[in-house]
Amino acid sequence: MIEEINIKYEKVVLVGIINQEQDEAKSKEYLDELEFLSYTAGGEVVARFTQKIAVPNPKTFIGTGKMEEIYEFVHEHEVGTVVFDDELSPAQQKNIEKILKCKILDRTSLILDIFAQRAQTSYARTQVELAQYQYLLPRLTGLWTHLERQRGGIGMRGPGETEIETDRRIVRDRIALLKKKLETIDKQMATQRGNRGALVRVALVGYTNVGKSTLMNVISKSDVFAENKLFATLDTTVRKVVIGNLPFLLSDTVGFIRKLPTQLVESFKSTLDEVREADLLLHVVDISHPNFEEHIASVNGILDEIKCSDKPTIMVFNKIDQYEYEAIEEDDLVTEKEAKHFTLEEWRQTWMNTMNGNALFISAISKENMDEFRQKVYSAVREIHVTRFPYNNFLYPEIAVDQQEE
Ligand SMILES: Nc1nc2c(ncn2[C@@H]2O[C@H](COP(=O)(O)OP(=O)(O)OP(=O)(O)O)[C@@H](O)[C@H]2O)c(=O)[nH]1
Ligand SMILES: [Mg+2]
Known about the structure:
Layout: E1 10-18, H1 24-41, E2 43-52, H2 64-76, E3 81-84, H3 90-100, E4 103-106, H4 107-118, H5 122-136, H6 145-151, H7 159-195, E5 201-206, H8 212-220, E6 237-243, E7 246-252, H9 262-267, H10 269-276, E8 280-286, H11 292-305, E9 313-318, H12 344-348, E10 359-361, H13 370-388, H14 401-404
Parallel strand pairs: 1-2, 1-3, 3-4, 5-7, 5-8, 8-9, 9-10
Antiparallel strand pairs: 6-7
Helix pairs in contact: 1-4, 4-5, 5-7
Guanosine-5'-triphosphate (GTP) binds next to helix 8.
């Protein structure tokens, strides 16, 4: 018998909405990303459904007609999972499940699922487990328990409610336990970080799949797992890197994403501490991605959330080898120039021009502009170093990095 070696992908259907905040094009981009997320989680997207809806239906998120359409498709094609791009309330999730009679996920639960799949170390697993239980807790409520309890009285005190209460207690206990476990690990990690001594600390941050690990491998000549899936990295890797004559610590960490579940931000506290305690951030951007400006905004939002937006930052625009723009024909006087028509040179003249030279354009894969990258990082690290250790200056006289390389 021939063994089946192909990975079995689950059939998945995506659902998104179009409204004032997200027009058709935006909605498509979000669904593209959701498709990539589904694929990373092991799902093959067989159809997408979108609905123009100003205010989501409080009970079922989308309208009845659209729901019927999805129901028919799902049952005709034996689809097991429907993924919504937006966060569903526990009640909505339950209602939709009843109607569609299949597994219902939203963006948050999908991301949590990927994290769960990819968590390697017991530390990462504990963090993910905590986030999952926090997501689960409000969803343990029976749909009507809230109302029932308010009404109380005869016939409303059933075993159902008690069961839910017991379940909830178990989950709460588990959450408390996991939090304690993480606290202990956090303390250990803080000590470890403290033991790393006086070296300047640099952290790679950025949207998922932009090439942080690849860049880490290139500059530290290490071998960090990189692949074309989302959230390849969950644990932080720290390497000592020497550029010119200057040693510093470089950490590669979990990538960010639009609407990163808050439960994850919270439980990945220690992983993110690496970013919080860094002296310098290298914000890596995939400039070949049509949505890269929005990615930057998402990352900045999370940096803000973890109080890191004031840190010295170098913007590293990666994947220039893959950058493409749409040319406007010279005799085309109608098409208005937008972001997708910019050449790299034109991009440099936009807001990037106001970054005081703290914007770099590289390719970690084809190693373009790596000398400029090294020189820039070297200068920034050196500046932090000599400010911190003014008497140590003589150890590191300024040098031109490229002359020192191999
Ligand atoms: N064309 C091109 N591809 C690149 C470049 N840098 C990285 N990649 C590819 O982009 C994909 C993602 O790279 P990673 O290094 O895993 O990205 P990451 O930012 O660490 O991703 P997460 O850990 O998931 O957050 C891989 O397939 C890399 O080969 C580049 O400069 N050019
Ligand atoms: Mg990575």
